[in-house]
Amino acid sequence: MDAFAATRLAVGAAFLAFAAVSDLRTRKVRDPVWVALGSIGLFLVAAETVLRPIDPLAWPLIAAAGIWFYAIFFGDPLFDENGFHARPVRIALLLVAAALFLFPAASASAGGPGLSAAVGEIYSLPAMVLVYQGFYRVRLLHGGADTKGLIALTLLVPSAPSAAPFPLLAVAPPVDAALRIVFPFSLVVWVDAALASLAIPIGMLVYNAMRGDLRLPQAFLGYRVSLEPFAEHAWLMERITPGGEHVLVLFPKRGADPSADIARLRAAGIERAWVTPQTPFMVPLFVGFLMAFLVGNLLIGILGLAR
């Protein structure tokens, strides 16, 4: 394992372990964690571009990624609850980043030597900054910390590291070359984290079975707790409807105030109710990062495409 790969593994594991502990304790991860991780990532990419010279067209992409990344954390947004705000300096910086993003492809299409494979991989830096923000807008990612974490990981590890003997799941070289461009490493982390999250319902079922509280299907999704005091970091799965019917909601609305529902349940003589936990995604993200780095793309393994 070369020095850059080892550094990325150590830095990523350390930051994600810290984020996982913070998420478990408070269900929050402060922005400085992601700013620091992304900044280290940009520094490593720049250092690698200097020490292993890569095509100079990589530099505009690194700059575009940096501008779009820091714009997430600093400055007033263009859109908020009051609508659009024209902020000339911010708009100018975003347009500069867009121009830098388009420049390598435009240069290649204008009769240049074409984009090298290395530059094609570096394109994932600014591209995934935008893609993950899009995922958040359409609710494929449910938390701001999840989105910022994946963006920071993109900057830390822009392409799948070659750190023999890892990853254990390998594919044929032509397929690997294509996957490095269309399936950036942070996307592998996200997929592996999602697959690791599938262990949570099994863990819930085992936990409820050990407590002798095995009710299906809710035993896969939550557990029963006392309503007084109400459990922290959980969403209520039981309701009393306006018509007085006692119902189970397997997928409760996130962020709703449960006070009125708790009062109606207690008025109906119910002291214990099923809840589903606010699962801290940083834990499976940490596991997914280690699995992606050391094992590889689990989806490739499941599909039987690994060698």
What is the count of β-strands?
A: 7
Helix fraction bin: 55-70%
What does the overall shape look like?
Answer: globular
Strands of the biggest beta sheet: in what spatial order?
3-7-4
Computed over alpha carbons, the radius of gyration is 23 Å
Low-confidence stretches: none
Strand content: 5-15%
Mean pLDDT across all amino acids: 87
Determine the structural class based on helices, strands and strand pairing. Answer: mainly alpha
The total count of helices amounts to: 13
Largest sheet: 3 strands, antiparallel
CA distance, first residue to last residue:
20 Å
String of helices and strands: HHHEEHHHHHHHEEEEHEHH
Helix and strand topology:
Elements: H1 3-26, H2 31-51, H3 58-73, E1 79-80, E2 83-84, H4 88-109, H5 117-122, H6 124-137, H7 144-156, H8 173-182, H9 185-197, H10 199-210, E3 223-226, E4 234-236, E5 238-240, E6 246-248, H11 259-267, E7 272-277, H12 282-294, H13 298-302
Antiparallel strand pairs: 1-2, 3-7, 4-7, 5-6
